[in-house]
Amino acid sequence: MLDVPVLTGDARRSGAVATGWRIERADRREIEAYRAIRREVFVAEQGIFAADDADRIDDDPRTIVLVCVDAAGAVLGGVRLAPADEGRDIGWWTGSRLVVRRDARGAGHIGSALVREACATALTAGVLRFDAAVQQRNEAMFLHLGWRSGGRTEIGGVPHVRMTWPIDRIQQLLSATKGPLGELLGALGDDDPAALGGPGFLGDDGVPLPGTDVVAACDAILPAMVERDPEWAGWCAVLVNLNDLAAMGAEPIGLLDAVAAPTASFARRILAGLRSGATAWGVPILGGHTQLGVPAALSATALGRTSRPVPGGGGRFGDELSLTVDLRGDWRRGFEGRQWDTTSARSGAELRELGALVRRSRPAAAKDVSMGGIVGSAAMLAEASGTGLVIDVDAIPAPVGTGFGDWLTCFPGFGMLTADRPGRSRMSSALAETAVIGTLTAGSAVTLRWPDGVETLACGTAATGLGRAPAL
Question: SS3 for 355?
């Protein structure tokens, strides 16, 4: 709970407090001073606790304490934030024990500043749900700071309000990367029913070529990534395209690339990454285009074959959503929080084994985890299937020690979302973990369901705007 005493008290009381103060993460000495202030306020002054307000959160090594200190280093107040559960951190945190020293309550809205800093710290920690229980008399202040009320409770005989600070990280990611696609690309299909994948495959990872068993996939690599790490960009050009073919259940047969570079030596570095990736996955580079004397750029097209492509929009109301993901690896250096690298340490045989999973399992629908992250990519599968989606956050497999917000919005080396009737998921590999993480629902909203049963909105608008894939 955020047990907030009067934060804007009589300015005459604060005459001994310096007007200049700052908020920082507390060291051991400052934590002890903060706890002493808590006892003065919550035990002696307000009587909310009988003897001490200490609890398990104080002993949790993941707990972060923020304090406000004056120019001399004296602690004027503080707040703490920590995971809501003692177990695995799934991005659900609570703020609590917000307190300001009695003689500092007129020193310039210290309480509000501590709340703002706690919110910013939660975002940095990868938090996706941030709650607090606030004394009822301070509800208006929290509403002014952007928090939302969510019910009443009582702590120590004092009325409190359950509040949540809205975090729209997933919606923002989708809006920036996928949201405009419907408006941008929709007109392409107005005159040709085969455009954008054709019936059954609207917005899919790959495109079945009409009249053949060939599937094509095309991806471009971000120019900033090509400039920063050209070899890695070349490797990823192979990776993302073959993941797209894998999601369609297609066996890769070749690659085409388009490389642009300022110099021949720079182009050579990009091509070295492409060659390494093609060798690892055992897929030939059939040709392409190379241009020099221009800004760095890279795109690739992969070709595969299957007589029965798996649609991304093949899910139905009531289907279970499963995630199959390789948890091995670490953040790619220079791309921490955005790219989880599992593939560079895998053998060619292991990479090919993962790429064959959908082809062997034949789920009703499949979508590889791409720029939208786990939740965003799942939202695209649901949109193409004409359904909504509820995701059980605690069911999502994740590497130990990763911030959950980062994990749910990053690009993993190999992550595959599949939909099937309940109990029918057949995705299985010793190289990856598979778990049922949600259910396709009526409507169109994508929500996150937390261990306490509360559901929060992850995506309230269409992921891409392309809509439901038309039936075959």
Answer: helix
Percent of the chain with pLDDT over 70: 94
Q: What residues form DSSP beta bridges with 288? A: 257
pLDDT mean over 168-196: 79
From CA 313, how far away is CA 438, in angstroms rounded?
Answer: 16
CATH of domain 205-308: 3.30.1330.10
In this prediction, residue 11 carries a pLDDT of: 33
Domain extents in the chain = 11-167, 170-204+311-472, 205-308
Report pLDDT digits (tens) over 383-421: 999 999 999 999 999 999 898 999 999 999 999 999 999
* SS3 label, residue 182: helix
Q: Quote the pLDDT of residue 12.
A: 32
Helices and strands in the chain, H and E counts? 13, 22
Cα(444)–Cα(98) distance, integer angstroms: 38
- The answer to whether 42 touches 35, Cβ cutoff 8 Å, is no
Single out the residue of 331, 296, 437 nearest to residue 377, CA to CA: 437
Please tell me whether the overall predicted TM-score, pTM, comes out greater than 0.85 for this model: yes
What sign does the dihedral 276-277-280-282 (CA atoms) show?
negative
Q: How far is CA 321 from the centre of its chain?
A: 17
What CATH number belongs to 170-204+311-472? 3.90.650.10
Looking at residue 189, its amino acid is: G
pLDDT at 331 over 50: yes
Residue 428, both tokens = 């299985």
CB 260 within 8 A of CB 291: yes
CB atoms within 10 A of CB 401: 7
Q: Which residues pair with 441 in a beta bridge?
A: 388
The mean pLDDT value of the chain amounts to: 90
Task: Please state, in angstroms and rounded to a whole number, the distance separating the CA atoms of residues 190 and 188.
Answer: 6
DSSP state of 44: I
Q: Give the pLDDT band (50/70/90) at residue 194.
A: low
DSSP state of 217: E
Assigned token pair, 227: 């400039």
| DSSP codes, 246-307 | HHTTPEEEEEEEEEEESSHHHHHHHHHHHHHHHHHHT--EEEEEEEESS--EEEEEEEEE-S
Q: What is the CATH number of domain 11-167?
A: 3.40.630.30
Taking 90 as the threshold, does the pLDDT of residue 176 lie above it?
no
Which range of 39-53, 187-201, 230-244 scores highest in mean pLDDT? It is: 230-244
Sequence-distant (≥ 6) Cβ neighbours of residue 389 within 8 angstroms: 321, 378, 379, 381, 382, 438, 439, 440, 441, 445, 446, 447
